[in-house]
Each structure stands twice: as C-alpha cells, then as structure tokens.
Amino acid sequence: MPAPTTPAGPLIVAEISGNHNGSLPRALDIVRAVADTGASAVKIQTYTPDTITLDVDAPAFRISEGHDLWSSRTLYDLYREAHTPWEWHEPIFELARDLGLVAFSTPFDETSVEFLESLDVPLYKIASLEIVDLPLIAQVARTGKPMIVSVGTASIGEVDAAVTAARSGGCTDLTLLACTSSYPAEPDDANLLRMPAMQRMWGAKVGLSDHTLGIGVSVAATALGATVIEKHVTLSRGDGGVDAAFSLEPSELAQLVAECDAAARALGSADAWATSAESESLRLRPSLYIAADVRAGERFTPENVRSVRPSGGLPPAEIDRVLGRTAARDAATGTPVNWDLVAPADQSSASE
Fold first, then answer.
1. Contact (Cβ atoms closer than 8 angstroms) between residue 289 and residue 306
2. Do both 211 and 331 map to the same domain?
3. For this UniProt entry, which residues form the secretion signal (predicted)?
4. Using 50, 70 and 90 to split pLDDT, how confident is the model at 349?
C-alpha cells in the first residue's frame, strides 16, 4: 500500500462519497481542499444506481422508516443522488495525483472493477456491506493490488471468509478496517478493540472506517495501531448532501491528520523511560542542599540541610545518613551536599 504522507501517522483517507452534491467542480474542490489538509489519500465510490440495486419501490428496497438521514428513501433514489458519474473518475483521479494524493475507489460489481482497472487505480476498498460478496472480493484480489476491507456488519466467520477469498485470489497486502455501518455512528458502538483482535486472528494490517462525529474515535484507533483511517469529507456540512451530516470539513480533517500523527508518534517504545527530551527536568530533580550557612564542624540538622530542587547534591534518600553528621568545611546556603562536605562518622562523633 502507498506510504502515508504524514511522518508517523496512518494513511488518512478522505472519502468524497456523495458530498459532491451532483457537481464535478465541487468534487474537484473537495480534492483540492483535502490536499491542503495534509491527508494522504482521496477515495470515491464506483457504481451507478443500476449496478448497485434495482429500480423497485417496495419495502425491501427502501431505507427503514425513522433512519436518521435517509428515512423511507428507495435505494435507487438514494444511490442515484449519491453516485459519482463514471466520466468524473478520471479528472478526479488526475487532479488528486497531481496534488500528491493517493486516489482510489470502492467498486461494487464486476463492471466497476473492470472500469477502475482501465484507470489503473493503485488499490481497492471493499465496502462493509459487500464483505459477503466473495466473488467481488476474489475479482479484486486477482488484480494483485492492495485491498482495504471494511468489516462493518460482519461476523467473525464472514470476515474469515472474506480474508480467505482475498488471499486465495492473490492479495498479499490486506488491511481490515473496523467499521460501524451506521450513519452517523456512536462512539459506544465503535468497539475499537476489534482492531488488535483482527490483527492477531488474520495477521493483517488494521485500521478504522469512522462514521462517528468528530475525530476522537479516529485518534483512539491510531493509538491502537490503525494504519488506515477513513473519514467522509465535505466542503461544508451546511451545504447539505446525503453524507454531509457525518462528514468532516477541511479544517477538521487537517486537525485529524495532525492529531493522528501525534498519537502515532506518542506510542514510542515500551523500552524508553528517561529520555534526552527530559534533560532539563532531570537537572531540576530535588537533591540535598545547604539551606543555612554552616561552619566546619557544625552538625547537620533539618534546618541547615534540606531536599530541594535542583539536582547536584546527594539523593534525598540519603538525608538520614547526613543528619547528625558534621560539616567537613564551611559551606554557604545553596551549596550542594556531597560526601566530601560531610565529615567521616568517627570525626563527627569525636566532635561531640
């Protein structure tokens, strides 16, 4: 899979989906805005209403009543509004590549894979609902290109079948995305601990397709090892559109890029404890100092020896070994207490 453009963070994929609102110029403006955020990639979806569903107005072909965004709409009507015309793909991909973005798509049937192959896309995404379309997964795998597969709606058995189909078809670069196929999704339903579990079970890279509001869930996923984060993006939620309500605006996407990079860099190493970055703090750790002028032979007491910042003197744990002994020489306030300032124990006793 193409490397992320951020120094340490995951591949941040900006999903345009239907946020073009039926306008190619708007789609291209979204690509430009994505490039300005520092995101790694831009993605669209390749289908028509006729390749993804049937033009049938029956209960099975309608979104359920009460859905937060698309209540009672027919699938055909929804996908007619949301689809990206195939003739737009080439200019979208070309602009994205010119701006340094990885550009790819999600196919939904055999014809869309063939079309995307004609455009030489560098990788493919399988949508959550299509995780059960094993022939589609096998067809994409035969391209030999990296695959990203969302596991929303899937059981463990269905994920296993999809992984088997991908690898049997020839995929050697597979990423599984935790996903909650709900729009918008609630953080309570993210179940990000699936990610390390998927990594263990299938030996694949993992990531998140995030439909929650905001960026917090994506940042948390990065801390759990996500190598890919996908978020829907629009120019402005106020412009409306089928996906606008759960999409990020460009300024939020830029924040996502920065915070995911910070989360990835913050993981560091379990072997690292005190580091060079803490050199000034190390210098300021407390130690034993003369707190009031003392003369040679004078006994050390809690009034003239204290544990204070900075370092330079004996560790604070040595205070009981110092108190009651005598000064080997005169010492002014602010002098670090080291053993050469402390008279030997026999001399301290002799001075009593």
1. yes
2. no
3. none
4. low
CA distances (Å), 60 to each of 309, 310, 318, in order?
72, 73, 78
Does a structural domain hold residue 94?
yes
Give the model confidence (pLDDT) of 266-303 as tens digits. Answer: 998 888 888 888 999 999 999 999 999 999 999 999 99
Relative to beta strand 305-308, strand 287-290 is: antiparallel
Q: What percent of the chain lies above the pLDDT cut of 70?
A: 96
Residues 178, 198 contacting (CB under 8 angstroms): yes
Is 124:146 a contact under the CB 8 Å cutoff? Answer: yes
Residue 311: strand, helix, or coil:
coil
Q: For residues 289 and 142, give the distance between their C-alpha atoms in angstroms, rounded to a whole number.
A: 73
Helices (H) and strands (E) in the chain, counts: 13, 10
Please report where in the chains the tokens 């004996």 appear, as a residue.
314
Which pair of structure tokens corresponds to residue 41? 């990639």
pTM: 0.86
In terms of Cβ atoms closer than 10 Å to its own Cβ (0-12, 13-18, 19+), residue 270 is exposed
Q: For position 344, which CATH number holds?
A: 3.90.1210.10
Q: Note whether 173 and 166 are within 8 A (CB).
A: no
pLDDT tens-digit series, residues 50-103: 999 999 999 999 988 887 777 889 999 989 999 999 999 999 999 999 999 999
Q: Which residue range is the domain that position 309 belongs to? A: 278-350
Residue 137: both structure tokens together: 């997964």
DSSP string, 245-296: GGPBPHHHHHHHHHHHHHHHHHH--TT--S-GGGHHHHHTS-EEEE-S-B-T
Residues 220-246, mean pLDDT to the nearest whole number: 95
In contact, 128 and 104? CB cutoff 8 Å: no
Instruction: Give the integer Cα–Cα distance in Å for 78 and 56.
Output: 12
Strand partners, 183: none
Token digits of residue 244: 């606008």
Asked whether residue 91 falls in the same domain as residue 213, the answer is: yes
